[in-house]
Design brief:
By secondary structure, the protein is an alpha+beta fold. The chain has one domain. The chain is 28% helix and 22% strand. The protein has three helices and four strands; from the N terminus they run αβααβββ. The protein has a four-stranded mixed β-sheet. Strand 2 and strand 3 form a beta hairpin.
């Protein structure tokens, strides 16, 4: 019987490439190409009515906060992929998190380091919605 060897469950391209693609998504948060940006109802409640200028300003502030996030540490970024962040918005603790799906958004991506087979979904949520 052949010896079993440990096979890493980390993607082929590794955390450096995944981090680069995650940073690209956040840098292009208003034009994510085939990726998706979503927010929970709790975040929408914090923003308020975007049909008035005040709501638009809050939404722009939220987007800038996620786009410019740079407080990665080992607790929030243990694999070095820069796929999650924690921040305060409107006095509320919030997270943003990037998940990796196949192109049809049916299942997980087999290789999150490959943008040709991965759709990134960045979700913005309140900590208490987790």
């Amino acid at each position: 019987m052949a010896d079993q060897t440990f096979t890493s469950e980390r993607p082929k391209g590794g955390p450096t490439e995944i981090a680069r693609l995650n940073d690209w998504l956040r840098a292009h948060i208003t034009a994510p190409v085939n990726n998706r940006i979503v927010m929970t109802s709790g975040i929408a409640d914090l923003i308020g009515d975007v049909s008035i200028f005040r709501g638009f300003r809050k939404r722009a502030e939220l987007i800038r906060t996620v786009r410019d996030y740079d407080r990665f540490d080992d607790a929030i970024n243990p694999h070095g992929e820069r796929d999650m962040g924690r921040f305060e918005f409107e006095g509320t603790a919030c997270y943003w998190k990037i998940d990796y799906y196949d192109l049809d958004l049916i299942g997980g991506s087999e290789d999150p380091a490959d943008p040709f087979q991965t759709t990134r979904v960045l979700t913005i949520m309140r900590v208490d919605e987790r």
